[in-house]
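[job 4417] fold queue: 2 targets
>>> target A
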Amino acid sequence: MKKVIGLIVLAVMVILPFNVNAAVALEQSCGEDVELAQPDGQYTHSKTCKIVVNVTGNSTLNKYGITASYDTSIIKVQDVQTNNPWSLTTNTATSTGAAITWTPSSAISNNKSEVATVVFYINKSDPTKNCDINFTQCFDENGTFICNEPKTPTCKIENGKYYGKNGTEVTEEVYNKECLSNPQTGNFIPYIVVITGAILAISVFTISRKNNKLYKI
């Protein structure tokens, strides 16, 4: 019996280091629209947005990107002011907005990092036009880094409000459950190890009990 307990404890010790939550979360905040002192062609206002990435758990970030989705007929990216230790990699206009990527001078882990400030120019001459700008980070549902066409924004914190995996506003508790409790790096090995270890421990315990009964007979 002592040997069985020892094996179970060993299995738990092996599993625990892998059972660490990992998350890469986008946090951004945008200021109010400001009227330009000197309008730039058709553009009459500017909006400044701060981009922050929060890396937790066992995630390691070697590159980062966002997509900004907006009405391209009235909004454009005017400037990207990057913060250390980040360097701007791409700033590409798309049919539905923009795709912007950065690379850090060294890998980011277990840290909240201010990536950049993005300045948008907006034409607000037509009040019927939608001037909203939506952000999402460039990771697909498997945690693979991508930065293509903007899609429905998911898992973000904007102006103190929380948005879950479906892009809808949720409570902080729901946000933490949906966005921070599961790896977003595509690494599903921890779950496999946990399940395999549990099955192994149960199997060893069951076989050992059967052997003990045979010995008693």
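>>> target B
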Amino acid sequence: MASSGIFWAVLGAALAAGCAGAGSAIGVGIAGRAASGVVTQEPGMFSKVLILQLLPGTQGIYGLLIAFIALSQIGLLGGGAQMNMELTKGLMYFAACLPMAIGGLISAIAQGKCAVSAIGLVAKRPDQFGKSMIFPAMVETYAILALLVSILSINGIG
């Protein structure tokens, strides 16, 4: 089974969705703890800290997108799956999904930690909300780069 290309292709898609989703869950959870603390003291800050808490959740969406694209390419979503896919081609799909899997996992956790600091900034200086969003948004850049590399790689497999 492990010598089957379809196995590696599906594993790559699963890792893209699973790792990026896990990273998002961790990042959103980290930021959520900080946001809850702020709302305990200042209930009116809910919407501002909620936005900052949600930022690490995008990597999970990106990972899911990569999984859908990969599964569509190999035919598992639209029918006509390539069950006899060559090992080399399966490994190419696997490798194409790795940037999103690894980049999504790491950047979501880092973004969650950065969002905690941004939430602390907003708690002390609510007028600095716009600036506070820039810090975790900078981490998002690397998740987007991983997303692009995975999309271009998957689409390049013929």
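[job 4417] complete. Note on B: The mean pLDDT is 94.
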